[in-house]
Specification:
6 strands, alpha/beta
């Protein structure tokens, strides 16, 4: 069980979001969306625990900036080693314009330098990575730069290796991403690395697009799946498996639904998906089980039956093999619902 579930032994986390005149506001607000969602889900999972995530918006000089439309979290003492300073992407015309912004932002550079000297973490978005680079914080590190600025940064900061082509980079206590549109995913990665990977995964399930879950969800409420947009045997087989996820698996009806022989279906299905129809069905069932464990109060037997298994013990073993944890452990770590105070009416009456 993760430390965040054992109580309050995990130190709190503070995100400090740097607001600059040249900032792309969307990157600041995307970071805020992630941290506020994380705080909300953490409170949902542990309603009696004190807040463990707080945030503040700072001016370039490091002063707290009060935004009228943004509630301020409760005050909480957080050590520098548990503080992340988020540098937004900059709205610049071209690469040399980044240098001009830095030249007129000495206070922001001092804020970043002071934060890192105190032992904090840094998360820079897109061309905002120029701030730690200008301070020498990336010297000797291999970092990815946004492609329009890569050549300029290589000339301007030659002690840094800008040859990385990954979307996300990490150099010591400095994280960076190459595009403003990646800000939400970027902040989830930072949250998972610095604070709580379980919480980051739970937030990702809510904020990021989940294609497989998006397909599975309608079946839970209306037994309806994606509209028919393909007539391939593999598509028809996948459609059949999705529509019959809670029924025992037999290859013959799947092949009949695909209008091919069993042998042909196995060959084509493997070529297209890299797995057998049964392995694909297992994936659907595991994903449904995860959703049910996260948002419902169904017991293991009920979840197993909803996933096509009359034998709950067999499904427990499958779930353990595929996820590396038991169903109860998964529920404890990733539940996205408040815990009920009373499970039975008589419990409430007794109190």
């Amino acid at each position: 069980m993760s430390a965040s579930r054992r109580g309050d032994d995990r130190p709190p986390l503070r995100l400090r979001l740097l607001w600059l005149p040249e900032a792309l506001p969307g990157t600041v607000f995307s970071a805020l969306d992630v941290v506020r969602a994380a705080a909300g889900i953490a409170q949902l999972q542990r309603p009696d625990a004190p807040p463990r995530i707080v945030w503040q918006v700072l001016t370039g000089s490091g002063r707290n900036l009060s935004l009228p439309f943004l509630e301020q979290p409760s005050r909480l003492r957080v050590p520098p080693s548990r503080t992340v300073l988020v540098i937004p992407a900059l709205n610049t015309r071209n690469a040399p314009h980044v240098g001009e912004v830095l030249a007129r932002s000495p206070a922001a550079l001092r804020t970043v330098e002071r934060h890192m000297t105190d032992g904090g973490w840094l998360a820079a978005c897109a061309n905002g990575v120029a701030l730690p680079a200008a301070l020498g914080l990336l010297d000797g590190a291999r970092v990815a730069a946004p492609w329009p600025y890569q050549s300029w940064m290589a000339r301007q900061y030659p002690h840094c290796d800008w040859s990385a082509d990954e979307a996300f980079s990490a150099a010591g206590r400095c994280f960076s991403c190459v595009a403003p549109a990646l800000m939400s995913e970027f902040m989830l990665r930072v949250l998972g690395h610095v604070h709580d990977p379980d919480l980051a995964q739970a937030v990702a399930q809510v904020l990021l697009h989940q294609p497989q879950r998006q397909q599975l969800t309608p079946a839970l409420v209306a037994k309806r799946w994606l509209s028919r947009t393909s007539d391939s045997p593999v598509y028809r087989a996948m459609q059949y498996l999705q529509d019959h996820i809670d029924q025992p698996y037999r290859l013959a009806p799947v092949a009949a639904a695909a209008a091919v022989s069993e042998r042909t279906l196995l060959r084509h299905f493997g070529q297209v998906t890299g797995m057998t129809p049964l392995a694909y069905l297992h994936g659907l069932r595991i994903e449904r089980a995860k959703m049910l464990l996260e948002v419902t109060l169904h017991g293991v037997q009920g979840v197993a039956e909803a996933c096509g298994y009359a034998d709950a013990a067999a499904f427990r073993r499958l779930f353990q093999r595929e996820t590396g944890m038991s169903m109860s452990q998964y529920r404890v770590r990733f539940a996205l619902r408040s815990r009920r105070r009373f499970w039975r009416v008589e419990d409430a009456r007794a109190e």
